[in-house]
Amino acid sequence: DNVSKVTISKRLKDTPALVTGQMSSSMRVMMQMMEAQGASGGMDMNRLAKDNNLELNAAHPIIVNLNQLRKTNKVAATLVAKQLLDNVMVQSGIPFNINDGTDRQYKLIS
Fold first, then answer.
1. Orientation angle between helical segments 61-72 and 74-92, nearest 10 degrees
2. Three-state SS annotation for 39-66
3. Which run of H or of E encompasses 6?
4. Gap between the Cα atoms of 18 and 31, Å rounded
5. Which residues contact 5 (CB under 8 A, 6 or more apart)?
6. Disulfide check for 52: which of 13, 21, 78, 90 has CB 3.0–4.6 Å away?
7. Rounded distance between C-alpha atoms, residue 26 and residue 10, angstroms
8. What percent of the chain is modeled with pLDDT above 70?
9. Overall pTM > 0.85
């Protein structure tokens, strides 16, 4: 829901994934505050938030293990992939639905 494109990164070495977009994290925060105040000026905030690319480090152990899990347990792999995206979005300062993320965490733990 929050990503428009997924690519394999040639630049990531130590991190499993990175979200990039045309808007800086500080600009995203400002836009989120404007939307909360009803001062978006007619801009489509959802479209701007979804204009993100997910870069994956195919050699990172998390991504390798996620790919193996995908082959044996698609339901668990989907939960883990969404949780990974939540984590990457937090690191990038991109807003997302924290309630959905928390529900996923509970499902992963149980």
1. 150
2. CCCCCCHHHHHCCEEEEECCCCHHHHHH
3. strand 5-8
4. 21
5. 53, 54
6. 21
7. 26
8. 79
9. no
